[in-house]
# Entry
Amino acid sequence: MKKLIVLGLSICLYGFLAQNSLAKTYKEIFWEELMPPDWAKQIEKDFTKMKQFESMDDSDPKTDSLYSKLRKQWDEAPISKKYIGKPIRIAGYVVPLDADRSKIREFLIVPYFGACIHTPPPPANQIILVIPPAGGLKVRSMDPVWVEGILTESRLNNDMGVSAYQLNAAKIAPYK
# Structure
């Protein structure tokens, strides 16, 4: 009988240890890594174009034309496949999509403060749709956070911009 108890406890302990050893290790990544390298060079050119906006009049048709071309290019931004299907950890700012006063059920994470709210949205490959763990999340718009989860490719167009990635978050924590 003692042998059966020891065997049972050993199996339980083995199962516990095996489960913990299979825990995901999240690789910390930076926003630049979500852009294909050749496309990152294009962004530099785009920022030069954006400087032109400062000297253009808002009512000028050329302004609309330039903005529309730039917006289309950024909404169709290619992704980097390097981290698709892999566990990642990334820091960014919260842009709520589905929320009420008590919690956020769905949000975007963006690389810089004010993105999608006070400025034109970043390129699609610089916006991640985040689905928090069950129960939602108690943060505010533009709060800096760390998000961990498996990154997937999922292009979504919404009022705040176009996201090229999705993260079903396993963990969300304040950025410190």
Summary: Residues 34 and 81 are 8 Å apart (CA to CA). DSSP finds three helices and six strands in the chain.
